[in-house]
Design brief:
- The chain has about 160 residues and is of the alpha+beta class.
- The protein has 2 domains: about 90 residues, Nuclear Transport Factor 2, Chain: A, CATH 3.10.450; about 55 residues, Nuclear Transport Factor 2, Chain: A (Roll).
- Helix content is about 30%, strand content about 40%.
- The protein is built from 2 helices and 8 strands.
- It has a 4-stranded antiparallel β-sheet, with helices on one face. It has a 4-stranded antiparallel β-sheet with strand order 5-6-7-8.
- β2 and β3 form a beta hairpin.
- Pfam families: TseB.
- This is DUF5590 domain-containing protein.
- InterPro entries: Cystatin_sf, TseB-like_dom.
Length: about 160
């Protein structure tokens, strides 16, 4: 009887772990697919020659931000809409704006407990850095800083 109980508990535990892994794998599949399509579109539209990184940015309109280098060796960020509309692609040269480190330096370090992520995205005023962080009061905060000049665009505090 004891062996049956151990077998059933082991079986249920392995089944739970297997289903959890499968669910997590399938949940990330749409992001992986759209990122791959956006990279292909950015390259085929001659915006960049090679792509280094890509991620989904969910702002007012969702974009895939693709980082890469053009034929002249200039580093660029290409913002491809989720709709994959080639006419709506936006491009910025990374040397014409502030870096990720400079964007982080614009937030109040005294209040930051942990920076969760920093993403370059595209919004109404143009390219923006989205910085998500936890403050000393354990509240979630989002700060949006303009890529062009490092000015504050929007803050969402204490969520």
């Amino acid at each position: 009887m004891k062996n049956w109980i151990i077998f059933i508990i082991s079986f249920v535990l392995i089944l739970t772990i297997g289903i959890s892994v499968l669910v997590l794998w399938e949940a990330s599949s749409p992001f992986t697919k759209i990122e791959k399509q956006a990279v292909e579109l950015a390259i085929s539209s001659d915006s960049i020659k090679t792509a280094d990184d890509a991620y989904v940015y969910n702002g007012n309109k969702p974009y895939v931000t693709v980082f890469g280098v053009d034929e002249e060796g200039v580093e660029k960020a290409v913002f491809v809409p989720i709709t994959l509309d080639e006419k709506s692609i936006q491009i910025v040269r990374l040397d014409e704006g502030i870096s990720e480190e400079e964007a982080i330096s614009h937030i109040d370090k005294k209040d930051v407990k942990e920076v969760l992520h920093t993403k370059l995205g595209y919004e109404e005023p143009g390219a923006v850095w989205e910085i998500a962080y936890i403050n000393k009061s354990d509240k979630l905060n989002y700060v949006y800083i303009l890529f062009e000049d490092g000015q504050w665009w929007k803050r969402i505090l204490n969520l």
